[in-house]
Design brief:
Shape: globular
Number of domains: 2
Number of strands: 14
CATH class of the largest domain: Alpha Beta
Radius of gyration: 18 Å
Structural class: alpha+beta
Number of helices: 7
Strand content: 35-45%
Length: about 220
């Protein structure tokens, strides 16, 4: 059995479980997991745990993370990203100073509810399944910490940003809150995870390269348990 930690650059439209299945096929073993779920529309660093490293799941889950992303102002959807049903569209008259103020107001410790379309479990069922079934749910708030949340560039309705945050932070929800504070709605339109703890995207293997490697070559790229 192969034991170790693999840094993987998850492609867009893959679920985190798709990435785990891909690695399972490449190394020929079932005991493979991941820490820190990425939505299908997000790309970037996913920590894959093999063999005995799966026991370190909670250790990696609690690490802080860096993201780069884009939110689009003037749009609201039921999923808080571009995948969902459009709820409203609006012209956003916010100035650059207004945008910076909205971002700055979302730093620090805060309580956050998971989006209605998310994989968090409520009474044993995934929240998105309950939402699609029309079941009303009281979503529990959980404490998160946003260390920094800064707009880098504004291109029309698109605001490019960087974010450092704690585990359990829903970036979609932060973007939605920016839109609420500006009075025009906002959705997450792209997201790349750059860092988890001390691990960085620049050191991760992508799908084409990993697909060409033998199990022995993959073993050479693993961090040891």
């Amino acid at each position: 059995m192969i034991d170790g930690i693999l840094l993987f650059n998850k492609p867009i439209l893959w679920t985190s479980h798709d990435a785990v299945d891909f690695v399972r096929r490449r190394v020929g073993q079932r005991q493979v997991g991941h820490a820190g779920t990425l939505d299908p529309l997000a790309t970037g660093l996913l920590v894959i745990l093999l063999g005995g490293a799966t026991k370190r799941f909670k250790e990696f889950e609690k690490l802080d993370k860096d993201y780069e992303g884009t939110l689009t102002l003037g749009l609201a959807t039921d999923t808080l990203d571009l995948e969902g049903r459009i709820l409203s569209t609006d012209e956003c008259a916010a100035s650059a100073a207004d945008v910076r103020k909205a971002f700055a107001g979302l730093t620090g410790e805060q309580a956050q509810a998971a989006p209605l379309y998310s994989a968090v479990r409520v009474k044993g069922r995934k929240l998105y399944d309950l939402t699609r079934s029309g079941v009303a749910v009281n979503r529990l708030l959980r404490q998160i910490t946003v260390t920094s949340f800064e707009p880098l560039r504004i291109d029309g309705p698109d605001v490019h940003f960087v974010l450092t945050c704690s585990k359990g932070t829903y970036v979609r929800s932060l973007c939605d809150e920016v839109g609420r504070r500006l009075g025009c709605g906002a959705v997450l339109s792209s997201l790349v995870r750059r860092r988890i703890g001390g691990d960085h995207l620049k050191d991760a293997l992508d799908e084409p390269r990993l697909g060409r490697m033998t199990p022995a070559q993959i073993r050479e790229h693993l961090q040891r348990v």
